[in-house]
Design brief:
By secondary structure, the protein is α+β, with helices and mostly antiparallel strands. It has an eight-stranded antiparallel β-barrel with strand order 1-2-3-4-5-6-7-8.
Amino acid sequence: MFQSGNTLTGVDLLKLAFGLVVFPLQVMVRMGLFVTRTCSSLDWILLGVLLLPATGIADSASAQCEIELDAPEAQIQRLPCTFSQRQGYVSILVGDTGAYTLSPVGDAPGNYLDAESKPVYRQAGLGSAGLIFRFSDRVIRVMWLIEGE
């Protein structure tokens, strides 16, 4: 198709690009027809399971965290943070100061254990603006960042 020493023209590039797209599609269609004729129901189920997207994908969001220690005259710290949740497990990464990892416990939603196996409770109160987590020695309010503010 192409001879050495010649430069590719626009038409040649189009033919090459078209071939790179069409040929794999032809192979997939032919394989699909072959699979349709020869596969049992169990094969289709296995194929479907293999083609499912990964289910362990985490949801993450940038947020502003307020950390209030349970101490007299404690200052409230406001720091940027990242909130992540995956299959019930929660991670709160607070600036450069630290991370909080919470594991779900029991059947009731909002009950967690921290890294030291101490109970943590998610509370209502911020509505759609964020989440509140009550630890044994502090409260962390995770407030979602809204674009334009």
